[in-house]
Structure formats: C-alpha cells, structure tokens
Amino acid sequence: MTELKGDAPHRVFRDRHEAGRVLAELLEHYRGAPNLLILGLPRGGIPVAWEVAAALDAPMDALVVRKLGAPGNPEFAIGALSSGGRIVLNDDLVRALRLTAEQVRAVATAEAEELRRREGAYRAGRGPVEVAGRTVILVDDGSATGASMRAAVDAVRAGEPERIVVAVPAAPESTCRELGAAVDEVVCATVPSPFRAVGESFWDFAQVTDAAVRTLMTTTTTGIAVPPTDAAAIVRAAAIPAPAGVPADDVLSDIVGAADVVLIGESSHGTADFYAARAKITRFLIEQKGFTAVAAEADWPDAHRVNLYLHGQGRDATAEQALRGFERFPAWMWRNTEVRDFLTWLHEHNVRQHEHGSRRTGFYGLDLYSLHRSMAEVIGYLDTVDTVAAQRARIRYGCFDHTSGDDGQAYGFAAAFGAGRSCEAQAIRQLVELQRTTVDGTELDPAVDRHFDAVRNACSVRDAEAYYRTMFGDRVDSWNLRDRHMADTLDALREHLDAGRQRDGEQRARIVVWAHNSHVGDARATEMRAQGQLTLGQLVRERYGERCVSIGFSTCAGTVTAADEWGGPALRRSVREALPSSVEELLHDTGIGEFALRMDRPGDAVERLRHPRLQRAIGVIYRPGTERQSHYFHTRVAEQFDALIHIDRTTALEPLEPSGEWVAGTIPETYPSGL
C-alpha cells in the first residue's frame, strides 16, 4: 500500500499495528535470538512494539521516555528524559534558544512527574527493565528528531545489553543515520522525502490511550506468533537463472524490449564479475539488438582515444594501448583485464561490420573530470581548422594557468575561496563560439565527428569548471551538476549519432550506458532524494520514459579492488558479509548463487522489494571500518531499477598494471567513497 508524495512514492501504513508487522518482516533475522527483548516507547510505540514482539515470539515491555519541549512551544523538542532520570539535550537548540539551566531544569522536572505516572500506569509497579546481556530492540511509531530515541538508547546502554537495535516505521534519513552511528543496527521501514511529520506515514494516527497501552501490556506476545513470511522464499520463487550474472537471451530481449537506452550498473567500481557480466550483456545488445554505442562513466577525451581505436583510427594497435589514455585516478576502473578483453572483441566486431558496410560501435565518455585535458583537445582541434580561433581559445583557457597540471581540485579550491580567479565566463565563451561553428554532414563524416568531439570537450571544460568550483561547497550541488552533465552528454551523443539515420530510414541510435548503480538507479527511490540529489538514471527515465531500461548489480561478499583513500594505490580487499536488513542479505538468503529479478512487472517479490532496505555501494574507495556509514544507504530497489542481477560471491577486478600491494592479495579485515 503506497501513496504518492511529490513525484516519489513511499510506504503509508494503515495504522500502528500494520507498521509493526512490516517492521517485524525487516527484523525477521532476530527470530529465535537468545535473550531477545522488545521495548516499546509509550504511548504510540507500544502497538508497534507489540506486533514486532508477537511476530518474533519475544517478550515485550515498555520503556518510558518523555520529550522535553521548548518553553512556550512544547511540541518543539529540545531533548528527552528517560527512566532513571537520564536526559539527552540538543545543545545546539538550547544555545540557539538561549535557554538557561533553570528553564531546562523546570521543563525536565515537569516531565519527570508525567514519566513517573506513566511508568506506574503501564508497568504496574515493576522495577527497572533488566537488559543485561540481552539483544534489545527499541521500537517507536516514528522518529522526527530522534531525541526521544536517543534518550531511550542511553537508558538501555546503562544496563549493559549485548546488542541495541532501533526500529521505527518512519523517520527522515538524517535521523536514521544519526541513530545508526549510536547503536548496532537501525531499521527504518520508510524514509519519506520530504519528511514533514511522522503522522503523514499513517492513515490512522489517532492518539493511543492509556487504556490501550495497558491492554497491550497485559496481552502476551509469546507463544502466539504466526508462521513467519519467508521473504527469501518469495524472492527465490521469482528468481530468473543468470549464470555468471547473464540471463538467457530471450529474457534479456524481453527486458530490453524497444528501449533505445539501456543503463547497466555495478555496486562497486572494482568487481570483475560485474564488468564481465556487463560486457556479455552489452555484446548481446550489440550483436542481437542493434546497439551501436557504449557510453561510460569515463572522461570524454580518454574514451575518445578508445573510440578512435575501435574505428581503426588513431595510433593505437591494441586495446591495451588505447586504454593508456586513462591516467587519472582511479586508472584501474577502465585499465583492467575485463575492459581490455571487451574492447578487443569490439574492435574485431567493428572490422567485420566495416567489411559488410554496416555501422560500427563506438565508445564514449560521459564524465567531466578532464578539465585541463579537454582544454588541450579543444585547442588542438582549432589548431588544425582555424589558427586565429585557436589563439582565442589559448587566451581564454589561460585563465586556468594559475593551477598546475591537471589538478581541477586546486583550481576549484582557489576559485571557491577567493585565492584565484573564476574562469566561468571564459569557459562559457569558448563553448558558445564552438557551438556557433557548424560543419555540414553526418556523424560518419570525419570533419563532423571531429567538430562534435571538440564541442563535447568544450562542454566538459565548462561543466568541470563549475563542478570543481562547487565541490568545496554543497556536495549535493556538485553531485547534481555531474549527473546532469552525464545526462546532457548522453542526449548530445544520441542526437549526433542520429544524424543521417532517419534520412536513410534507419532506427534511432541505441546506446548502452555503463556506470555505478548510484548513477544508473533512480534517485527518487533512494534516500538520495531526501538530500535533494538526482541521478543519471532518474533524468533518463524522465526524458525517455519507456524508451529506457536500467539494470543494477549486487553482491553479498567476496573481494574488491579499491583504494583506502583518494589517490591511493589499488588494493585487493575482502568485502564484508552484507549487513542485516539489507537487500544483499535478503538475496543471499535465497541460497542461489547467481540470478536476476525483474521489477518491471508486478509480483510478490516486487512488493517485498518496495520496502526500504539498506543497499551497499562501493566506489573506488572501500572503508570496511565505517561500512554502514560509508557504503550503505536506504533504497526501494523495486523502484530503483527495472531489473537486478545478484552474484552472491564476487572477485576483485584485475588492473592491467597491478601494484605490489594488489598482487600481495587481500588484506585481512578486522571490522573494516568516491562513487
């Protein structure tokens, strides 16, 4: 049951009891845990906690917490009070409101009276809740600021439990993350965006009465559990065989349908299995479905060198040589054995296509990091067609000379903090001048292709300048600028490749996109939307509708090639087992090593995967020590992709020039992001 909020749906519960049953499904891995205890926060959390406890066949009790409201505005929480007189205050709010210690003490004293009344009414005079050595699941009906729950966590931790879990039906993503840093696990059944109030996630959010609480507190939750819903079995029944991550041709053909753009993701930039499966799927799309372009999460000039090789041009005789243009960190992302082997095949395919007079397939970059490299390409092109225009370009791009080498971050830092000039106007003027220069012909004409390449490099300069300037400010702005650039480059590429096709009666250009899951998935189905972020996948869906398809990848554990920090060497790292309540754990529990799921048609598995779950995302940096905070975010995977391919155990991508550290093998993990 869902309803639309803005342009992205989120779960709306019939009442607190239904919310508790949904939470119980997400907490199913705790069924049978020894010394399990469910604690509800009265009053609204008690019906939710009762359903969780009944489903997990566990005892339930109440942990009374009182919100501390600001003087004159009791609904505005400045902190909370829990059993034993423990107080949690939001120091920033206390300072902002200029509250004195006496004012805070007065509020706490008043709430302490109500706390004692409720403990007497709900717990029938029982002493403190015994939590030592137990797994404690704290449940409320929602959490806006998290103040009450943090007070409850502090109260429980004082009793030395073995494990603390927080479970709520609805909360903003920021609160889920803050609580996640304080306890062993947090389960938020839905993360509405924008978040206005807990009550908006319920059809019936009537106040829970003291009488209702007392009734539930005296109704047993043990020995009455109904057989659990086996989510893994439901997903298992919907699983489609996908050996090595590749579904059968007829399945792929049906998933793709008439789409002109197929986005294929990866949940890490360093997993060989994802790259190999993506290459095999792309081969099928090229050979059987008429796709003639691969657009990758790569810089335009680096990919253009590969494209020249694929078209029998340039100076490179092998795929490995053509990949040497990828010099910037992380070089292994494209300079690896899987990409090399795919490009070798594609070159041979293009030779056969050319012999038969058919169109060849190109390889293009969508990214924007190539600030200085793209400037050099623009000037180099103009040197061959208009030396006067080339001199104008040198003067304009000379604005960037106060930073050395290809260090876009150094330029951005200087421009953002007033230590250097902003070159925005110069970058725009150069792009406009190139765009005003037209070359007649189709994309098959070398002159047209070279001009298009120059324009795309000039666009990269313009957007890279803005990206590096904004990256030291709001992260959302720089992320959105980058994904918009990728979407705009994809649009321009389609338009370029379409030139002459309609005249010749051919179908529109069909393009495969290679990028990380976090880019090809729809941001509206993830917590990214709550932060104001958008993605390439969202933009493509909005622009192309049913003419696009997105396919994601996932894994439970294995090894990955990644760095410890930005600019560091490529290391072969062990990937920790998927966290509880994650998509990856659910898929692992099916017991199937490799399979695909379709989310483009209704079914029980799709409904299960509409519930928010954690999803892992490893970019070029892997930090196992902070994995929950660094590499997981909430998604509704059934709305994020049209299909998902799971490979349960995966292996690290092999760089073409592996470092000594990589060759040495995986690093043992004790409890160990650039996407």
UniProtKB/TrEMBL annotation:
Pfam families: Erythro_esteras, Pribosyltran. One of its GO terms (biological process) is response to antibiotic. Residues 20-178 form the Phosphoribosyltransferase domain. This is Erythromycin esterase family protein.
